[in-house]
Design a protein that fits this description.
Length: 137
């Protein structure tokens, strides 16, 4: 029976060890805070002069500035002209591509009943069914 609960007991034991260590660390931190004379965490801190050990806070500035027609940010870290996207060998293949882009696509019509489940189509179907019922009577 003890073997079945051994993993659970080990987990509970590890939890208690961490809880004791965390409590001791919190107590040590509060003792150090009281000894250094820092105000408690609940009191608001006044923006006074910072010590040399604390980092200076400053407003972040963007590092990339984009101007009109400025491609310098796309040239990589060495400002190399790579010619990416330019193919000098196959210009004749692009002409057929531009012709196919300019042609209007032909609308495809499907024969037979075209049933749709939109609100307008359902109303249209009910009206047509009423018309057909009256003609048959």
């Amino acid at each position: 029976m003890f073997n079945a609960f051994a993993p659970l007991l080990a987990l509970v034991g590890i939890y208690f060890i961490f809880a004791v260590v965390a409590k001791a660390a919190k107590k040590t931190a509060s003792v150090q805070k009281k000894a250094s004379g820092t105000p408690a965490a609940s009191a608001p801190e006044s923006p006074g002069p910072q010590s040399a050990a604390e980092p200076q806070l400053r407003e972040m500035q963007p590092t990339v500035r984009i101007h009109n027609h400025d491609d310098s940010i796309y040239q990589g870290s060495m400002n190399a002209v790579t010619g990416e996207g330019y193919d000098p060998c196959h210009e004749e293949q692009l002409s057929s591509l531009t012709l196919s882009e300019t042609v209007e696509p032909v609308p495809v019509t499907t024969p037979g009943l075209q049933l749709h489940w939109t609100g307008d189509e359902i109303v249209r179907g009910l009206v047509i069914s009423e018309i057909l019922k009256r003609k048959g009577a």
